[in-house]
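Let us practice reading a record.
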Amino acid sequence: MPDYEFSPASGDRPRSWISKQVLIVLGVCLPVILALAIWVGVLTWRQSSMGATDHVSAIVLGRCLTYTRNMHPELRNQDCKKILNTFTSAFVSKDPCNITKEDYQPLIDLVTQTVPCNKTLFWSRSKELAHQYSGIQKEMFTLEDTLLGYIADNLVWCGDPRTSEVKEEFCPYRNENCSSTATSVFWTVVSQKFAESACGTVYVMLNGSGTTAFSKASTFGSVEVFNLHPDRVHTLHAWVMHDIGGVERDSCLGSSIKELKSIVNQRNISFFCQDDYRPARFVQCVRHPEHPSCSVLM
């Protein structure tokens, strides 16, 4: 039989060559694919989480001592270590998405502070200005000017069922799948207590440069206004403030304020509204002294 040498047809390659090509491609692409998958997973996790404040316990304790020893020495008898332990016991070793109001009740019962009548200032979407105003008018109290509000202001915290420590990494955002976070429930509970304790004439600073000055979705609109006791509070004054040089989207004549007035009146509480309350406007003008709207105040 004659010897024939069979050669690959044009375009074909030896099987071993193909295997090497596949291995090279897989070797290059697989790490990239895996890295991309990990990155997407981390991104998705981070989008559903928010950064927890580092050293929350130390910050809370330090703020408590500062508040009770220096800012309000009349509260020096408050036990800050006990306050810290009661605070962390509300959420440590618990599902960060399943915290209840009852978890914080021991803390509410422990901390006793009386805000003088006629000195309560609520705010909605106007936190910075409200705090600037209360910082000057020292007799006025926003929630963050009280002990519980002060120790937790701008902090984020949560626990984890797998550990007895305060979580120092990421805490879940509040969303439809996680509506009862440690931070959000805390603010709901202390906001309710703040409103229940108010007496006499109370005030609320609202933002008229936003879409609506009053919103029932805000803490003030969903919690605080409905927990004012008519037998303790007789009048609510609303101050609708507008940004210096900004757009005036809402005012005392707007539909959202009419809704607020209706809610308040139904609770047998008198209601008054004023656009750009003059003393608060002065505070705004400190940063914008040359603006025409500020020159007319002088």
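A brief commentary: The chain has one domain: 51-286.
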